[in-house]
Amino acid sequence: MGVLSCMKYLMFIFNVLVFAGGTCLAGVGLWVAVDPAGFQDIVAAKAVLSAGAYLLLAVGIALSLLGFLGCCGALRRSRPLLLVFFILVSLVFITQLVGAVLFLVHWKQIRPELFLSELQRNYRGDESAEVFSTAWNTLMVTFSCCGVLGPEDFGNGSRFQELHPGTPWPQACCTRDGVLQAGELLGWEQCQERSPGYIHEQGCFATFARTLQKYISVPGTCSLAVLGIEIFAMFFAFCLYYNFD
User: 144: buried, middle or exposed (CB in 10 Å: 19+, 13-18, 0-12)?
Assistant: First the structure.
């Protein structure tokens, strides 16, 4: 009985963690879904962000309900609840494994062409109050990058070139004395001449890809931790199911 009681409370603790994690995911999904301050306009492909937000919201709600179900099954010593919990966690576990495999197979197939076409069609310049342009200006200044692939993105018949025919690229591509957008330009004329040290030559797509590769271990570790928690939860549910009357 002592071991059984210990397993019951361990399962309760694990499910509290699942419930808390699901609540956090649902909160993030809801925050993105309501589009605070034009968050979805960082890229013009709003449908992708909307789908991701609602998917995150759905997964968060599902995990919260799953954690609540596991807690009730453990505390009430209910075999039907434990059986339902075991089946649902198994389905979630399999789905996550399939999703991880698909991500590893296809993530390198993401191409910058979609982002480039959106940038050339919608970006209007440094002084534009339109959300898409403002978001891109913030990204380029903050991450010290220029365009999707590089400064050339603002030529080739882009919307920016049409509005500013005498300007090769926006000031957001130029080096500043600080990372904040309010920082002074080191030299606008030198930036237009593409002098080394006065312009960000690196495109934002490559910058983000390098950052992702640098920190990919963080979400990977979190994913492994979640899978580990689910495995333990399934094990405890299985053991409790066959020991409860």
Answer: middle
